[in-house]
Amino acid sequence: MDVDVIVVGAGPAGLSATLMLARSRRSVLVIDDGRPRNRFAAHMHGLVGYDGTPPAELTARGRADAERYGVAFADDRVSAATAGGRHITLTTAGGATHRARAVVVASGIADVLPDVPGLAERWGTTVLHCPYCHGWEVREQRLGVLLTSSMGLHQAELARQLSDSVTVFTNDVAIDSAARTRLAARSVTIVDGSVSAVTQEATVHLADGGVVTIDALFTAGTPRPHDDFADALGARRVDDLLEVDALHRTSHPRLWACGNAVLPFANVPLSLGDGAMTGAAVNAALTAEDFDHAVAAADAARTQTPAEHWDGRYSAADRVWSGRVNAAVADIAGTVGPGAGRTSLDLGCGEGADVIWLAEHGWSARGVDISSVAVARATEAARERGVPARFESADLSTWEPEDTVDLVTASFLHSTVELPREDILRRAATWVAPGGHLLIVSHAAPPPWSHAHHHPTLPTPEEELHALALDASSWDILLSEVRERTTTGPDGEPAVLEDGIVLARRRDVGST
């Protein structure tokens, strides 16, 4: 799947960034493995309006909000990343590949706990990490703090605000006399020595055989990020966490990170704000890039002819189109009469698939395109298949055929550079012989892997007919409709496209 932004992680930070991006009309894919950091907690706290809400409920509501804006979700895990040009490509453990102009890492962290039996089993219930997140629920109870580093002393001071009964278990972490004096000043008990196990609610067993009964135990795990794929992009780290600037951009210009992936101490409210800021920063960066690209394209267009533009477009790949005939052309050409001895003219023929198919079915088929590169490929393809299709390179805004033909086709005659499309199609109608047909196939909607706001307004069949201004006394309108057809998208998945079809028949001379 190709999108503007991929967000890795559907926690508070990831969903907040996603919402900011989606509301800015960015196409977003969220990849998440369904293992949030706070899945061990029954409730979250400190979030205005949602205090006490289960974390899963916030995730479900956030996902529903994002889906209302067209955000796609993939239940998967990112396993690899590569960068090239203006994109990053991510590969998932499930084997899918997705490409985006920007990636937001919001995959959070895992808390690696001390290797103390019973600690992990009680994580999120009676073994806790954050006095702000869980402290109120255990206020005035017997509280313990298990040190994993001297930073745990701050946790101990916060716990003392919650209860008069606080015990610090050093677990062989050295604390100086100043810290001991500080804790003793507020009647905090210090127990030295190794902790061997935690049982029952939060009863602490010491290696020397001692047992201290408490009701809840605070400790801090070592943060382990879930973003190894970022290393392949050369993103710098500080203390194992991705290094970001003030706008949460990493050292890679298309990679941002937010939430616990860069702020392990952040609770849900902080993560939400962090994600919102990051989403806005990504949108701002892409917006600036869109303008830069538009200015560069405009500068190039001013010095490049349409023929040079299309030659460059075709030269950029060995083959641009599929080589298969357009389904509407194949279907309708078979209904307007046998091809044997009849003439056809395809406008904007490209690499010639429609013209070659018509020639193979008996038509005296001819194609015209402004690109000499496309015409050369079409001519070679016809030669290889042994069909007498003819091609020539010309500017349709000034070109005229020598005579009228039985079938004039124009399939997807759209252009990103100057093209007097309506004028060409009105003139094309005059090239249809009496009793002949004019067939116009156009894009009725952008492909699903693209984005409507990246495309010019596409005409409806009714608008096509209005622009053609066909004389009702000389023409019969046989079709004016939108048809669906299946195809394969850039990601290899099946997709449905919508084509606008206009088919008109020029009446025979003297017919009514």
Textual characterization of the structure:
- The chain has 512 residues and is α/β, with parallel strands linked by helices.
- The protein has helices at residues 12-22, 55-68, 131-134, 152-162, 177-184, 268-303, 306-315, 327-333, 353-360, 372-385, 421-429, 461-468; strands at residues 2-8, 28-32, 72-75, 78-84, 87-92, 97-105, 109-112, 127-128, 143-146, 166-169, 189-191, 195-199, 203-206, 211-212, 216-219, 222-225, 237-238, 241-242, 255-257, 343-347, 364-369, 390-393, 405-411, 432-443, 475-488, 494-506.
- The strands form 6 sheets. Strands 1, 2, 3, 4, 5, 6 and 19 form a 7-stranded mixed sheet that branches. A 7-stranded mixed sheet has the order 22-21-20-23-24-26-25, sandwiched between helices.
- The protein is elongated and about 110 Å long.
- The two termini are 53 Å apart.
- The mean pLDDT is 90.
Q: What summary fits the major beta sheet?
A: 7 strands, mixed
Mean pLDDT, to the nearest integer, reads 90
Helix fraction bin: 25-40%
Q: Could you state the oligomeric state of the chains shown?
A: single chain
Distance between the termini: 53 Å
Poorly predicted regions: none
Question: Rg to the nearest angstrom?
Answer: 33 Å
Number of DSSP helical runs = 12
Q: Please indicate the percent range of residues in DSSP E strands (runs of 2 or more).
A: 25-35%
